[in-house]
Each structure stands twice: as C-alpha cells, then as structure tokens.
Design a protein that fits this description.
Blueprint: H1 4-22, H2 24-37, H3 39-48, H4 84-89, H5 91-101, E1 106-107, E2 119-126, E3 129-130, H6 132-137, H7 139-147, E4 154-160, E5 165-169, E6 176-184, E7 189-193, E8 196-199, E9 205-208, E10 214-218, E11 224-232, H8 238-248
Antiparallel strand pairs: 1-2, 2-3, 2-4, 4-11, 5-10, 6-9, 6-11, 7-8, 7-10
Family: Belongs to the aspartyl/asparaginyl beta-hydroxylase family.
GO molecular function: dioxygenase activity
Domain Aspartyl/asparaginy/proline hydroxylase: 90-234
C-alpha cells in the first residue's frame, strides 16, 4: 500500500488517543499485572536461553502495552494451530447458514469510514459477549464454535464488497490471534500483515497476529465472505487468559 508510513503514524495516533482515554494509572496496572502473570513463561525462556524480553517490530502496535515474552510472528503457520482443520471440514455447512443470513449483516465494528465500499459483519461473539440470536440462527456454525478454541473477542461472518478495502489498523493485544476461513468470493482478496501479503482462497484458512498493523484490499468481482475467529496465543497461561478477557470486555 502507498503511504504506509502515514498510515502507521495514524495508527500510532489512534492508539495514543485510546491510551490517553484509558489513563496512565490503568495502563501502569495493566503492565504490572501482565508482567507478573508472565513470570513463569519469562523464566522458562530465560532458562532455555531464549531471553527475557519480547522482540520489537515497528508494525506491532496493539492498543495496550505488549504482553511480555510471547512468540512474535505476523503470519502464523497453520501447523501450529491444527484445530483450524475443523473449520475447513465444516465449510459446506457454514456456507449453507451464511446464505440464510446474508441479508442480516450490519456495519462492522472497525469499518473504515474512509472507504465507501463498506465492511459488514454478522457477529456471533463481540468483546467477550455472545450474540445469542445470531448463534440461534446458525446452529451448526454455533456448534462448530463450541468445538474450537475461540476467545469470544471478535467472532463473525465478515463481508467486503468488490473493490472494497479496510484501512490499516491493529488489534487490542498481542495475546489474541485471528483465523480467517474463506467462505466464498475470495478471488482477488488479499490481506497484508506487517507489510507481507497473503491471498484469501475459498475453503482455506489464514492465521495472523492482529496486534501487527494489517489491512485488506479486494479487487475481485464478488463480495468476499469469511468466518473470522479470534483465539488465544498458545503461549498464554490460563491466568493470563482470565485477566485479558476481563480487560478486553471493557475496551473501546
């Protein structure tokens, strides 16, 4: 994308505004608690010689301070997340239910107001809360979601119109990852994560770390539909997961 440096500046400014609104005391408490809860992982990595600190990447810009000592990879290897095969296997059933609810999509929470080709979504979970009427309308998809390790932050059907795009942005924390299952109309759709791109394909899964600045562009002729599933970074402890779930429920 052209003028990426300008977009990175915009993301930094948006995150700075969020942190200013959150307040220095809450951010300091978040940082202190996250470092305390991460101590077992930090010690284990230090013993193995992996070092104590998280690596730093210019494009990794979550809203909240980085959680320490987590593996940092913008695009993830599917072999590290074998449960994503369940998404692929359920593709025919998910598509059937998608067709039943396509007219019920609404403006996505993070849609770009700079792009007239809107990003719309049909939420199953948002910021830790279930959307019960949508789960009831798609019982087979709801059952699938009970079988995979989603964290309920942002789980939905997602749609981007032909020639549409989603401007560069980042997610709230580096402890949550994202899986996208291509459902239909994926030809011509591409995602960039930290400047590296990958093509969407019908029936295939992409996994990435949305704490890195990322964006989507769709040059195809059909609306691109995906199933979006957020899930925990596998290196998090169960205490960190409980803590982060409480934090994100109150974010933005």
């Amino acid at each position: 994308m052209e003028a990426l440096d300008e977009w990175l500046t915009t993301v930094r400014e948006e995150n700075a505004a969020f942190r200013a609104k959150t307040g220095a005391i809450k951010l300091a408490a978040f940082r202190a608690i996250s470092y305390l809860l991460a101590m077992p992982r930090r010690l284990a990595k230090a013993v193995r010689g992996d070092g104590w600190a998280s690596s730093v990447h210019d494009h990794q810009l979550p809203w909240l301070p980085l959680l320490p000592a987590l593996k940092t990879t913008p695009m993830r290897d599917l072999r590290d997340h074998p449960w994503t095969q369940r998404l692929k296997q359920a593709l025919p059933e998910i598509r059937e239910e998608l067709a039943d609810v396509q007219r019920s999509f609404s403006l996505a929470r993070y849609d770009s107001d700079l792009n007239p080709k809107r990003w719309t979504a049909y939420y199953f979970y948002l910021l830790g809360r279930p959307v019960r009427e949508h789960l009831a309308a798609c019982p087979r998809t709801a059952e699938l979601l009970r079988q995979v390790p989603h964290n309920s932050f942002h789980v939905c059907f997602s749609a981007i119109e032909p020639e549409g795009s989603l401007h560069p942005h980042s997610g709230p924390i580096n402890g949550s990852l994202v899986a996208h299952l291509g459902l239909e109309g994926c030809a011509g759709a591409r995602i960039w994560v930290a400047g590296k791109s990958a093509e969407y394909r019908d029936g295939e899964v992409l996994v990435f770390d949305d704490s890195f600045v990322h964006w989507v562009e769709h040059s195809g002729t059909q609306t691109r539909y995906t199933l979006m599933v957020t899930f925990w970074h596998p290196e998090l402890t169960w205490l960190e997961r409980i803590f982060l779930k409480r934090v994100v429920r109150t974010a933005r």
